[in-house]
Specification:
Layout lengths: L12 H23 L16 H14 L5 E5 L3 H14 L12 E5 L4 H14 L6 E5 L4
Parallel strand pairs: 1-2, 1-3
């Protein structure tokens, strides 16, 4: 890897070399994380975009769930939830739940408020007739 910087950045070459050498061990660690197939290290997720086997397994699972799927319950708080919700709202609108003909719909369980969770449960019991109509996705970054 080549690091390019301007001579006007006012950082001495010696300081850059010292910082670079102290990062060498971590760079080697990240290399191991990026090429490991077992996902044993916390940083191993950097390999996920290039994991063809996981992609194929995910696509098979998604295709098997397409028929009859009405609701996707996403359980996650904070960043585990917000990115998916932002994309979903951008694609289908904030009021998608009011569109009775479009399925599947996502329900975001993004709180530990017992009243809210009870309302989700009541809704699902009333609207889901079989297990093929519901997918539950639990996301945690910790």
């Amino acid at each position: 890897m080549q690091f390019l910087y301007s001579s006007t950045c006012r950082v001495l070459d010696s300081a850059l070399l010292e910082s670079g050498s102290s990062l060498k061990e971590y760079a080697e660690y990240m290399e191991k994380a990026a090429h490991g197939k077992e996902y044993l290290l916390p940083e191993s997720s950097v390999a996920l975009p290039f994991d063809e086997a996981s992609l194929r397994a995910s696509m098979l699972l998604a295709n098997s769930m397409r028929t009859g799927l009405k609701y996707i319950l996403l359980v996650g708080i904070g960043g585990s939830n917000l990115g998916t919700k932002a994309v979903y709202d951008a694609l289908f609108g904030f009021f998608d739940v009011l569109e009775p003909e479009r399925f599947p719909k996502m329900i975001f369980a993004d709180t530990v408020d017992p009243e809210f969770l009870e309302k989700i449960k009541t809704f699902l019991v009333a609207h889901v007739q079989s297990k093929k109509e519901l997918a539950v996705v639990v996301i945690s970054k910790s």
